[in-house]
Amino acid sequence: MASSILDEMAHNYNLASVRVFAMMLPKIFKSLYRHIYVNQSRINQLRSLMNEYPVVFLPTHRSYIDFLLVSYVCFHYDLTIPVVAAAQDFLGMRFVSTLLRNSGAFFIHRTGSTPQQDPLYWSLLNEYIQQHLHNGDAPVEFFIEGTRSRTGKWLLPPKLGMLSMCLEAYVKGQVPDMFLVPVSITYDRILEENLYAYELLGVPKPKESMSGLLRARSILAEDFGSIHAVFGEPISVHALKHIKGKVASYTADYPVLDQVITDLGRLLEFPKAPLHQFIAGNKDSVIHSAKL
């Protein structure tokens, strides 16, 4: 039972798949976007941090492109590609799910069970994430909102489950510290804008499938403007006052987590500077489509 859960969940890095993405993504991004803006000074800071401590990326989530963007930026700047939490919905797209798994995605139950209903599954997921942080092989990435924002609001209420699993690795003493890195990803236009409009009108969300992906290839001819990816100030978990000397448990100690989340809510400041100021201050940090 445990082995079948892990076989379905686990990622499986494969250099050939990473190279396929390295060839595909520049062409896709060149077709869709004019520029990708990145604050390169923070990338240089992350490079030194990732050599010493585990890092957890916490991107905003508005588009399926988010799954690819942080990994692509890391690849472009020669940083270790993160392991990324993806919903099991993608397993229905056989070719895509294999490519994602071999490039660092691991697949999780987003809904349908709780730790009380399925303790084996959640214990394995907990240990899987903590072993990644303990071994320090790669950063961990997940979307703290849990799902894509469909209304244009800045952030959905945070989901505490995976964050608590990461924090538990620190309070158990498995790692001396870890750094949480908020990542603000904004788009001039999102690929799913028509889909979101239909969903707001009450049309059910279509299931992810290869046929749907193939039907959507016509968007490659459209202009979606630019992407702005801003990596925020890394937050040291060791510096969070409420977590020192505490033992947080995913299933038993939510008051501690609530206090930690209060701290994080204050510290996870996603950049809100006017766009023209950000671009003016990061002209040397633009990944031009023509150079992808």
Key terms for this structure?
11 helices, alpha/beta, 292 residues, single chain
Structure description:
The protein has 292 residues and is α/β, with parallel strands linked by helices. The protein is built from 11 helices and 9 strands. Strands 1, 2, 3, 4, 5, 6, 7, 8 and 9 form a 9-stranded mixed beta sheet that branches. Strand 3, helix 5 (94-101) and strand 4 (105-108) form a beta-alpha-beta unit. Helix 1 (2-9) packs across helix 6 (119-135) and helix 6 crosses helix 7 (161-171). The termini are far apart. Mean pLDDT is 76; it is low at 247-254, 269-284 and 288-292.
- Which regions are unreliable across 5 or more consecutive residues at pLDDT < 50? 247-254, 269-284, 288-292
- Report the major sheet: 9 strands, mixed
- Total DSSP helices: 11
Quaternary structure annotation: single chain
Helix content: 40-55%
Number of strands: 9
Summary, kept brief:
This protein is an alpha/beta fold.
Which SSEs are present, and which pair or pack?
Elements: H1 2-9, H2 15-32, E1 35-38, H3 40-50, E2 55-59, H4 66-76, E3 83-87, H5 94-101, E4 105-108, H6 119-135, E5 140-141, H7 161-171, E6 179-187, H8 193-200, H9 210-215, E7 227-231, E8 235-236, H10 254-267, H11 275-281, E9 286-288
Parallel strand pairs: 1-7, 2-5, 2-6, 3-4, 3-5
Antiparallel strand pairs: 1-9, 6-7, 6-8
Helix pairs in contact: 1-6, 6-7
